[in-house]
């Protein structure tokens, strides 16, 4: 015990296997435990980095997919706009055609009325001519 105290004063200690050590057994055990905890911490940190990396990758993929869908939506909207413009142009053409046909119909109606009047006049003339004989 006295020898141990003298060695302890000199900073030397015996471990559980009676090997001479510079560190106290308790300090050596704490150091080993700390080393293990550090190793576990480093492992967990690496695992966390891996998880974060795959999460970032997933977010990037989702962003790309969202961008693609956005482009599709813009394309579809532009297509609808152009279809709407085409329809509008067709409608205007048809309105112009209807107006033209209505004018033509009016001309034919006037022409028909004129021809009916001429026919009536001619019939009257024929009747007068027959009665004169």
From TrEMBL:
Keywords linked to the UniProt accession: Cell projection, Coiled coil
Domain of life: Eukaryota
Keyword Coiled coil part of the UniProt annotation: yes
InterPro entries per record: FT20
Main location per the UniProt record: other
Pfam family, one: IFT20
UniProt entry tagged with the keyword Coiled coil: yes
Subcellular location: Cell projection, Cilium
A Gene Ontology cellular-component term: intraciliary transport particle
Positions in coiled-coil regions: 80-111
Protein name (database record): IFT20 protein
Species annotation: Anthoscopus minutus (Southern penduline-tit)
Gene from which this protein is expressed: Ift20
């Amino acid at each position: 015990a006295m020898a141990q105290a003298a060695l302890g004063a000199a900073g030397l200690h015996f471990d559980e296997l009676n090997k001479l050590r510079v560190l106290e057994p308790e300090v050596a055990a704490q150091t080993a435990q700390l080393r293990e905890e550090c190793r576990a911490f480093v492992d967990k940190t690496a695992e966390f980095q891996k998880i974060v990396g795959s999460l970032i990758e997933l977010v990037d993929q989702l962003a790309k997919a969202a961008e693609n869908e956005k482009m599709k939506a813009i394309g579809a909207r532009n297509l609808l706009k152009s279809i709407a413009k085409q329809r509008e142009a067709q409608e205007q053409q048809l309105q112009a055609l209807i107006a033209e046909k209505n004018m033509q119909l009016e001309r034919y109606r006037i022409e028909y009325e004129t021809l009916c009047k001429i026919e009536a006049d001619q019939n009257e003339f024929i009747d007068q001519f027959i009665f004169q004989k």
